Amino acid sequence: MAIIGLDTEIVEVEADTTGGTHFIIVGLPDAAVQESKERVRSAIKNSGFYFPRGRTVVNLAPADLKKQGPSFDLPIAVSVLKKTKQIPDTFRDSPKEIFAGELALDGKIRPVNGILPMAIAAKKQNVESFYVPAENASEAGLVPGTNIFPVHTLKELIEHLDGERIIEPIKTPRISLKNMADLEKYDFAFIRGQEHAKRALEIAAAGGHNILMSGPPGSGKTLLSRALPGILPDLTVDEALEVTKIYSVAGELPTDLPIISSRPFRSPHHTASGVSLVGGGAWPRPGEVSLAHRGVLFLDELPEFDRQVLENLRQPLEDGLVTISRVAGTIQFPAKFMLVAARNPCPCGYTNDPYGNCTCSPIQVSNYNKKISGPLLDRIDLHVDVPKIKFEKLESNEMAESSTAIQARVQAARHRQEKRFQDTGIFTNAEMSSEQTRHFCPQNDEIKKLLRQAVEQMNLSARAYFRILKIGRTIADLEASDEIQTKHIAEALQYRPRVE
Ligand SMILES: Nc1ncnc2c1ncn2[C@@H]1O[C@H](COP(=O)(O)OP(=O)(O)OP(=O)(O)O)[C@@H](O)[C@H]1O
Ligand SMILES: [Mg+2]
């Protein structure tokens, strides 16, 4: 199977032997597929079979589809063995049977990327049997409906196809999703004060909203963000499959974990390039924004990121996906993530310090703030100050509310949203379109009046207007309130910065 973005297409592999001495692969193979020749030749010989002497041609069809990576080793070896009658003809070569795997020189089969999307495509096309590297079997098994055969070596596979020693298909594993957050290290209970920031993070987690924290050095911004995974709602099975598909194609799936079971938390360094952030490359790969799909993209020290790199976030933040254009066509990767960012208010970090310790000139402050563009800031729903905390709070032994307690509220609010958005294709308030916002966030006269005032006085954009309504919806959900009340909108407005 060839992988294009997150989709896959079945490739037919055919082999022929004629006069001459070469082994040739045709059908737009990339370098890894070309090198397959050497691996296949050695693997076949070292598994106790013979490689044909004359000229061998392998064709990968459709010929105009680019083939990439080492997963074609196994089907190429099978087709050569079949052509030379080392596999009996009883074995059908219709698209009912599919092979994927990289060969080691001694005939062992190594794991490959993208097995989950392949298994999904195989099921869609009614493939009966899918032969996969044993290490990828539990990943393929996430999709029931196809017989998944875990294969360790080429020899084992041939004996199975011969009927000599049958490999048992694997049983579909039960999917168990558990939040893997490290509560021993990062729990909201250990973070003193900062109730305002904690509340904003709770709202962000409940509705999937973007949040920016500003404050002086050492006030706890990074600490608060690190504790965020502990209050995120659990992934649903559908979401987990979506996320796992992306990790499978990116080759980022941990070997001991067939499924991504808790929301991703990605924190790229501020030296990250545009391609690593949004994806791309000659063979387009998902970037950080897609690896953060259904989870969190945490950008610490936001102004230190290259401005041009940050601008790339504008499209995914608005559309929830990344479009990469290539000569052969466009590829899209999903990218519905929650942006969490932290920054100091100025280069020295003490602009709003009550003791007036700031040493920056107004020009320095303004240049610093210009590093983040207005359009990007406009896409951030919650702006919170994380001030220096008072000594009494630091010293006190009182524990704050635990992450587990906050997570329970977040989870309940998320369930309300799932119910509300049944059959709409979205899961969270943050994903609502303008039309959906109008429909799901009815406003009474008092709210209308409040919003009119706010739009005029705070100079809000149309986008900001809809984003405030969505935050209001989430605050109401946290209170298990069906209707949005004036106080919910009033709180939502607090998190909006004033645009000068
Ligand atoms: N509210 C708090 N409660 C408990 N510990 C805190 C708190 N704030 C800060 N700390 C301690 O101070 C350390 C530094 O905090 P943190 O790295 O989160 O600061 P920051 O706001 O990200 O600073 P900077 O702007 O320099 O990046 C933390 O590792 C933690 O031990
Ligand atoms: Mg920090």
Structural overview:
It is a single chain. Helix content is 37%, strand content 15%. It is α/β, with parallel strands linked by helices and 500 residues long. The strands form 7 sheets. It has a 5-stranded parallel β-sheet. A 3-stranded mixed β-sheet has the order 3-5-4. The protein has a 3-stranded parallel β-sheet with strand order 6-9-10, sandwiched between helices. Strand 13 and strand 14 form a beta hairpin. The longest helix has 18 residues, at 403-420. The radius of gyration is 27 Å and the shape is elongated. 44% of the residues are buried. The mean pLDDT is 89. Bound molecules: adenosine-5'-triphosphate and magnesium ion. Residues 191-194, 215, 217-223, 342, 344, 349, 389 line the site of adenosine-5'-triphosphate.
Low-confidence stretches: none
User: Ligands in the structure?
Assistant: adenosine-5'-triphosphate, magnesium ion
First-to-last CA distance: 54 Å
Report the β-strand fraction as a percent range: 15-25%
Overall mean pLDDT stands at 89
| Overall body shape | elongated
Q: Return Rg in Å.
A: 27 Å
* Largest β-sheet summary: 5 strands, parallel
Percent helix: 25-40%
Let me know the number of strands.
19
Q: How do the strands line up in the largest sheet?
A: 12-15-18-11-19
Class by SSE composition: alpha/beta
Number of helices: 20
